[in-house]
Amino acid sequence: MSNVFRGFSAVFYKESLHIRRDFSTLFFSLIIPILQMFLLGYAIDTNIRQINTVVYNADGRQQSRELLDRLKNSDTFHLIRYVNNDRDLNDAIISGRCRVGIKIPVDYSDRLLHQTGAQVLVLIDGSDSSVAGQAINVTTAIGLDESLRRVLASSDAPFPVEMRPKILFNPDSRSPNFFLPGLVAVLLLNVTTFLTAFSIVREKERGTLEQLFVTPVRPMGLLLGKLLPYLVIGFFELSMLLVAMRFLFGVPIHGSVILLAFLSLPYLFVSLSLGILISSKATSQAHAMQLAFLTILPSIFFSGYIFPRETMPKFFYYLSYLVPAAYYINITRGIILRGAGWVHLWSDALILFLMGAALLIIAARRFHNKVIMA
Amino acid sequence: MTSSTKPSISAQHLVRRFGHFTAVNDVSFRVEKGEIFGFLGPNGSGKTTVIKMLTGLLPLSGGHAEVEGFDVSKDAEAVRENIGYMSQNFSLYTDLTVSENLTFYGRIYGLSNDHLRKRMDEIIELNGLGPYIHRLASQLSGGWKQRLALGCAMLHEPKLVFLDEPTAGIDPVARRQLWDLLFDLSGHGITFFVTTHYMDEAERCSHVAYIYFGQLIADGTPDSLRELPDVQPAGTLRIEITTPQVTRALRLAREIPGVRNATIYGQSIHALVDDHYDLNGLREELLKRNIVVAEIRPLAPSLEDVFVELTSKRQAEQEAARE
Questions:
Q1: pLDDT for A144-171, tens place per residue?
Q2: Least packed by Cβ within 10 Å: which of A56, A331, B135, B316?
Q3: Beta-carbon separation of A215 and B96 below 8 A
Q4: According to the model, what pLDDT value does residue B37 have?
Q5: Whether the complex's predicted ipTM surpasses the cut of 0.85
Q6: Alpha carbon B205 to chain centroid distance?
Q7: Contacts of B77 in chain A (CB under 8 A)
Q8: B257 C-beta neighbours (distance < 10 Å), count
């Protein structure tokens, strides 16, 4: 009699019918994430290569040309312009056509010859910090390398210290490998948070929600009946995204796919509960849309999807502990890239599950107390 | 036998406050089983609030209510199992078919498959929904939507059905058919709680109540309300004057001393006059003022007259209290 899930199967039945009837909404909410994956998978490359570079070689002798060749061969710089005075060098950077300007002074070769210390001016456009950082690192490294060669040229001794970096898990630093597992977390929000929020707000707009509250259906039965069909859709979407990731973008999955599927459940649960919570607040579908976008932004910026969480200011770093996508991205990158197992990831999954349960309970209480009075 | 004498609804001193605003102020009434109870009042007077309180959607700020023997504050779930509710916008799932809508509500109430099939057949038979069973609810006309909504509200065989403005926006034929159906069902012992704006519908109810700014100002059978002293004060007479020049006649009639209240109904004037006039005396007064009188006769007050009288008296009292 006082079964808290009362009405669950009836609502599940009805919701499945709604989804079948409104096939176009379903189609677009499944296909748009796939398109997004294509755009982001092909377009974004975080490896900085081929920076447009302007050169003012005032020296022009063989030594200076050798230095330029080394810069060119680093793959970091693309020497697109050669100028003959300082003003043109500056203008090329200010106009935005070049990010880096290299000036080799007129006495470069002479100073090398007399071992009085040659200097090369590197002008860097700081408006894009990652480009600037890469330009500094590579020019500094080439300068050091060049110096060492010259100092050690006389002797046969090897370099005293040599660093041998080895990149685990994504040895080629391929961007899709880094991006796509995180992107899955962001894209899943589309079919979970958005669709559930809309489906409940639609009932508010139609007045059917009020009707339901006059029946013996219990808030938990209603909400779970609404949530479960979208969980199934979310799962289907996840499979599509993983197949595309694996076979179209060639991102290898090092861990267990079954574990990934299982640990995705708590994340889907959180995002669906979030949708339900939004719908308890929103009064129209447009309102629900705005609130849902509010949840998307932290999932993109504070989850580690694009920017590492560790480099954030303390406040935002701790804030990022509240973002469900942060935990799920750790799970997807963990399993897909690092081959992580249950022992490494169970705590992330548990936190997600607890978040989902808390949100759902809050939403059910709100429905119990507020919606019916509106 | 004791259960049959218990009322369907017993509301005692209901109070509902929203902050400082008192939406429902000390409202008490009883609805007996099998009655068609008409609950009337202007928009915003508290009709819907009372329905929400009786269906357990809104907690009471004060008072006590029992619906079908269950306390609404303590046992809302039991109340909801025993009532049906049809809101004014019919609240159907327009992207579902007629049979899917019925199936959904049947399952919500936990009907077993066999029972559900049997009840669906009965409802379809009763409401004549047969030809439309596989049609989407969005493709039904207003009258058919209303029948489907009523069907959904009655699938679980409730003993009491709340109808919130059931005939708003549907055609006169469908309106009459609905009332025929309600009479038929009330004959089988089902109680109906109906809100409406149509006075002719109020006249059809076996019991009416009128709520005005949160307070109940009339409660009884239509006939008993017509005889209230406030409606028909001692020493007054209610008459109908038929005349070809109603507009001019109304203006002039209001100037006659002893005419308390006059208003136009089509080709006639309804007036409340002091009974020191008899009908002939009044006819003479009118002729003196060059009004051609085709017919003049005594009239029983309509329910509209009842509510107008009671409302204006209440307004006068409130203004007096303020001064």
A1: 888 888 877 766 777 777 788 787 777 7
A2: B316
A3: no
A4: 93
A5: no
A6: 7
A7: 1-2, 216
A8: 9
Q: How many CB pairs under 8 A join A and B?
A: 67
Helical residues (DSSP H) of chain B, grouped into ranges: 2-5, 47-54, 76-82, 98-108, 113-127, 142-154, 172-187, 199-204, 222-226, 246-253, 279-288, 303-322
Contact: B110, A216; criterion CB under 8 Å: yes
Contacts of B80 in chain A (CB under 8 A): 214-216
pLDDT at A369: 65
Assess if residue A45 is contained within a domain. no
User: How many C-beta neighbours within 10 Å does residue B248 have?
Assistant: 13
Same domain for A160 and A194, yes or no, is no
Q: Are residues A189 and A155 in the same domain?
A: no
| Residue whose pair of structure tokens reads 């935005």 in the numeric block | A96
Which residue in A199, A211, A213 has the most chain B C-beta atoms within 10 A of its own C-beta, making it the best mutation to test that interface?
A211
Q: How far apart are CA B1 and CA B321, in angstroms?
A: 47
- Render pLDDT for B164-181 as a digit per residue (tens, 0 to 9): 888 877 888 888 888 988
Q: In this structure, is residue A46 part of a structural domain?
A: no
Query: Domain range spanning residue A116?
Result: 51-168
Q: Which of A214-223, A337-346, A363-372 has the lowest mean pLDDT?
A: A363-372
Residue A115 sits in the same domain as residue A203: no
pLDDT exceeds cutoff 60 at A374:
no
How many domains is chain A built from?
Answer: 2
Closest residue in B to A17 (Cα) is B96
The region of weakest confidence among A328-337, B28-37, B285-294 is B285-294
A15 to chain B nearest CA, in Å?
A: 10
DSSP-derived 3-state class of residue B234: coil
CATH classification at residue A124: 3.40.1710.10
Please tell me whether residues A94 and A187 are part of one structural domain. no
